[in-house]
Structure formats: C-alpha cells, structure tokens
Amino acid sequence: MDIVNLEETRAQEIKPYVYDYTLEDWQEWVKTIGEAGFRAGQIFDWLYVKRVSSFEEMTNLPKSLREKLRQQFDFVTLTEVANYKSQDGTVKFLFELTDKNAIETVIMKHNYGNSVCVTTQVGCRIGCTFCASTLGGLKRNLSPGEIIAQVVKAQQLLDATQERVSSIVIMGIGEPFENYDAMMKFLKVMIHPKGLNIGQRHITVSTSGIVPNIYRFADEDTQINLAISIHAPNDALRSKLMPVNRRYPFADLIEACKYYVAKTGRRITFEYALMGGVNDRPEHAEELAKVLKTFPMAHVNLIPVNFVSERNYVRTPRNDIFTFQRILEKNKINATIRREQGSDIAAACGQLRAKHMESGAR
C-alpha cells in the first residue's frame, strides 16, 4: 500500500495549517505579502507561547494581516471524541481529524514532569503481529501541523494547572520514519526556543527499523533520543514478529544502529516487548546480550506485552521478566522494565482507536 502524501490526503483543501509552518516559513510568508519581518515572530508567539485558537485573538497584528491569515490558513481541527483518565494520572485522547479519521494522543504523568506521546500516521502499515496500531492498515500520513497540534492541545490542558509539557515521545500510532519529513518539521518547531522550547534530550523518536532513515537521522546532527523497536535477538524470530524485518534484515538494522552511535556519540534504547513463550526465554536474553555487546553503549527497555484482543500473545510471567533482565545485566547490558501506565484506560498504542473503528468509525 502506498503511503498517501499530504497533497493527496487534503486534495479538497487549499489552505495549509498554521502549525505546518516553522518560524522560517513564517518569515518567508510575511515577506512575500509585504509585511515587516517581525510579524513572523509575533505569529509564532501567538501560536506557541500564548497558544490561541483563532486569528481574531492575535490582537497585536493589524486587522488586514489577521484577515490574510484567515483567508490563507486553517487551524488544525482536533475534535475530542473521548478523553479517559487513568488512576495513575495518564490521560488518553481520541481525536477526530477534519477527514473523520481518528488518532490517539497520551499525556503521561511522571515524577520528573509531563510527557506527551504523539501519533504520526493514521494507522500503520508495518504489521507488527502484537500491535493494535496496525489493525486496519495505514490510512494516511499526518501533516506536521496535525502532529504539532497534539502537543499544543496537551499543553492547553496543562495550562489550567500551570504545568507544562516537559518531554515528548514519538511512539504513538504509526511509523515516524515513514513520515520522516513531517516528523522532522514537527521536531524543528518543538525545540525552537521561541516555540514550546522542549529540550532535545527530552524528546525520543521510536522506529521499527526503517534502515535508510536511521542513517539519515544520524546525519541530522541533533541531540534527540533514538529508540529502536527490536523485539527479537535474531533475524528469523524478528521476521515472524515484525514483517518490516523482511525488508530491512536484522544484520542491516544492527549496522545502521552502529553507524548512528559512531556518528552521534549517543546511546540507543532498544525496545523489547516480552511475549510469553515467544521471545522471553533465557536463551533469547543470552542471544540479545551477545548482539548488543558489540555496542559501546546500549540500553534495553523491557516491555511486558499489552493484551490486544485481536492478537494471541500472552504476558510474560513476572519472575521470567526479572530473569530476562538479570541475564542482560550479567552480560553488562543496562536493562530496565517499563513502568506500565494507563492500563485501565487502554492506553497502549492503537487500542482506543481500534475500539472506535469497531463502532464503524475510521
């Protein structure tokens, strides 16, 4: 299935979204319409510091400029279909887009601040056999503005309690590296000191292993964290769990990861979802340790698999999880077990959207 690009997706729409533009884009736009350059900074400030929801609220702009903005741009419409709050403070949103497709966004409460998990695609075509996000396949990519709007919405909610978004994980529905350009534009706006000003080291992007774009990301010269969804210690098992491995084999993925570490000097987090009787045996831990020993630094994030009714995987017993962790640590591989959040509100990727789709929605 071909990824649908933004122009095709919004064929009926002429106007770009205001969040689709970086500050540099705004500077170019005001120049083309004959406005003073400082107006770009004012627009950017209204969007990301004051976080207004309409052009009429941009009161220090001339009325004529506000009218031009209204004529040429739209705000992203994220209609809140559902809003669930977990006992642990996690808040999960199901948003409907202009074209009636649905996406998920999650706010997670930590002792170090508030983290937002954003979605980059409507659905996913990667086909991981344990994930709810792939149910129904890929519908389309999100625009940069549709990704940015998720963080703005989260921040607007936190504004009520004078809190702020302190970190971002790009681990929601979809494969970020298959919507690479939009993702990078999103990141550029997020880290801008005149925007939401999120520290680069407080942002993590996760990929299932789109090898060419791992090399590309390594060359971007950022301090943004990279996580690789590995989920198996060898080629054969990974291909069964993650069809993407057939396109980008395990050995090629490991080489790309080594390039990233050598180029950036930063460690990679390897995400490993433990599935009972599938990839969680001591021999799997030993094999994984052997692979990761070749890295000067590596961190494994062990994830007890989330139950998805459409899938057949079961959770690894607690004692087996600790055994897996101990084997890695014995081999001098740093390993942590992910703290579960929002399990009582179906906060795992794609679960809420899957339920929404069952009702006949998109």
Automatic annotation (TrEMBL):
Keywords, alphabetical: 4Fe-4S, Cytoplasm, Disulfide bond, Iron, Iron-sulfur, Metal-binding, Methyltransferase, rRNA processing, S-adenosyl-L-methionine, Transferase, tRNA processing
Enzyme Commission (EC) number: 2.1.1.192
Co-factor binding comment: Binds 1 [4Fe-4S] cluster. The cluster is coordinated with 3 cysteines and an exchangeable S-adenosyl-L-methionine.
UniProt-annotated catalytic positions: 104, 349
GO MF terms, alphabetically ordered: 4 iron, 4 sulfur cluster binding; metal ion binding; rRNA (adenine(2503)-C2-)-methyltransferase activity; rRNA binding; tRNA (adenine(37)-C2)-methyltransferase activity; tRNA binding
Subcellular location: Cytoplasm
Residues annotated as binding [4Fe-4S] cluster: 124, 128, 131
Family: Belongs to the radical SAM superfamily. RlmN family.
Protein name listed in UniProt: Probable dual-specificity RNA methyltransferase RlmN
Organism: Paenibacillus naphthalenovorans
Gene this chain is encoded by: rlmN
